[in-house]
Amino acid sequence: MYWIIGISVVVLALFIFLYRRYKMFAPALAGNHKDSEKLINLNDKNFNPYIKQGVTLVDFWADWCKPCKLQGPIISQLAEESTTKGLKICKLDVEKNPKVSKKLGIRSIPTIIIFKNGKVFEKFTGLKGKAVLQKAIKKAIE
Questions:
Q1: Quick check: pTM over 0.85?
Q2: Active-site positions?
Q3: CATH number at residue 104
Q4: Does 98 sit behind a cis peptide bond, omega within 30 degrees of 0 on the bond before it?
């Protein structure tokens, strides 16, 4: 009898976990994604001027990367919802801009780096949810 309750609790916990993961990446799973107009596309030439002052989140990605395609809509949504003055949300294609990628030691993508006044504040490798990134941005701004 107790084993039925135990299995029910495990199934419920698994369902809650999977639902929370789905909600975290739901914007990316919606299908056709178009980048936000507020999202800044960086390259090897304009990278340093953009990160020099304030807080800047940069998504390092490549066109062939499947996790990057899931991360992209989340980054666009952050850019669209951003109201913080001085915060810049950017992305940089590592295939087209190898100098910056090599300088920062980017070996895995997606990689997200939050810069504060030109210095690395926090670095994430792999797919990250919106809440995780919002929390890191808030910490960098304070």
A1: no
A2: 65, 68
A3: 3.40.30.10
A4: no
